[in-house]
Amino acid sequence: MTDNICKFVPYDHHDETIHTLYFVYEQNFDALPPVQMVSFYKLCIVVSGKGVYTIHEKEHSLKEGDIFFVFPSVSHSIRSENPENEDERLQCIYVSYLGIRANQIMEKIKVSVSSPVYSGFSGLIPFWKEAILHATKGSLDLISESVLLYTLSFLCNDDSDKEDTKGSNISQRIKKYIDENFADPDLSLDAICEHLHYNRKYISSVFKKHFKVGINEYLNSVRIHEACVLIDDKMTSVKNIAAKCGYSDQYYFSRVFKKHHGVSPREYIIGEKEGKI
User: Fold this and answer.
1) Claim to verify: residue 134 and residue 50 sit in the same structural domain
2) Are residues 131 and 176 in the same domain?
3) What's the rounded Cα separation, in Å, for the pair 192 and 177?
4) For 211-263, what is each residue's pLDDT tens digit?
5) Which residue(s) pair with 45 in the sheet?
6) Element spanning 77, H or E
7) Are the beta carbons of 18 and 101 closer than 8 angstroms?
8) CA distances from 257 to 71, 145, 166, 224, 235 (A)
9) Inter-CA distances, 247 with 33, 81, 214, 238, 253, Å
10) Quick one: pLDDT at residue 112?
11) Alpha helices (H) along the chain
12) Are 121 and 177 within one domain?
């Protein structure tokens, strides 16, 4: 196996628990941009090789059986320790995710940017490999969420499940409104404030607190994910894809898309056609 495996998880805009977005078998980190930033969490397991994970200017060694986390809106880099040696090249499988419940679990297991790597999980590697290789479009959401929650369960060491109920409920209302209206090009922070009757500062802070990502970043994440789904469903017009995802300016859409995926929508479409994505 030499090519990456990347499968898109169907996005249920009405589910308010936890959302898995991508289930990826990444086998060539050194082909990715040296510094990255995403708008969601990633739970990664090292299946082979050795590497270095740099976050907040601190380097963390990676080896087979390690689990590590990537955090929303935090710059990071991941590279092989010895990229010239193909047998030692870093390979990982990861699930990306977000949601109110996701944030609660992350708080429960006390995962933080300062301690993002956990060792001793080699026994989970066959489970992860079998899951991604056998996942189909119809089962991908269930399998990816099951892998995520099962793995997180090994890190739980606190039975408490504290929640700011008011903030959580308001955050869910904001998220639901975005999920249901992301295709509206006029959707903005002001429009959300007007709809929910809260001021900008409060809306922004409560959403960031519960989702660990800003409203505009989340909106773009939903729109770009929808764009990938449309491309996966064989839509090829960048202009039409942009319009269906809420972008009135296709060039701005292309810039946002490239920021998320490292390639333009046109390059992504070509890669999809050729089976490279």
Assistant:
1) yes
2) no
3) 8
4) 888 999 999 999 999 999 999 888 999 999 999 999 999 999 999 999 888 89
5) 67, 93
6) strand 76-80
7) yes
8) 19, 25, 34, 6, 15
9) 25, 40, 18, 11, 6
10) 84
11) 100-108, 125-134, 140-153, 165-181, 189-196, 200-211, 215-232, 238-244, 250-261, 265-273
12) no
Write down the residue that tokens 């995962």 correspond to: 111
* Cα-Cα end-to-end distance for the chain: 14
The enclosing domain of 113 has a CATH number of: 2.60.120.280
Rounded to 5°, the CA angle 234-239-241 comes to 40
The DSSP secondary-structure symbol of 36 reads B
Does residue 111 share a domain with residue 11?
yes
Residues 135 and 252 in one domain: no
Name the pLDDT band for 128 (thresholds 50, 70, 90). very high
184 phi and psi angles, rounded to 5 deg: -80, 115
Give the number of residues written for the chain.
277
> pTM of this prediction?
0.57
Q: Give the CA dihedral 260, 261, 267, 272, nearest 10 degrees.
A: -120
Number of domains in the chain: 2
Kindly calculate the radius of gyration of the chain based on its CA atoms and give it in whole angstroms.
19
Q: Are residues 66 and 107 in the same domain?
A: yes
Segments forming the whole domain that contains residue 200: 165-273
On whether both 142 and 184 belong to a single domain, the answer is: no
For the chain, what percentages of helix, strand and coil (3-state, to nearest 5) are there? 45, 20, 35
Q: What is the CATH number of the domain that holds 249?
A: 1.10.10.60
Rounded-to-integer distance, Cα 22 and Cα 26, Å: 11
Distance CA 50, CA 208 (A): 34
My answer on whether 172 and 90 are in the same domain is no
What separation in angstroms does the CA of 97 have from each of 85, 87, 235? 32, 30, 25
CA distances (Å), 68 to each of 37, 79, 196, in order? 15, 13, 37
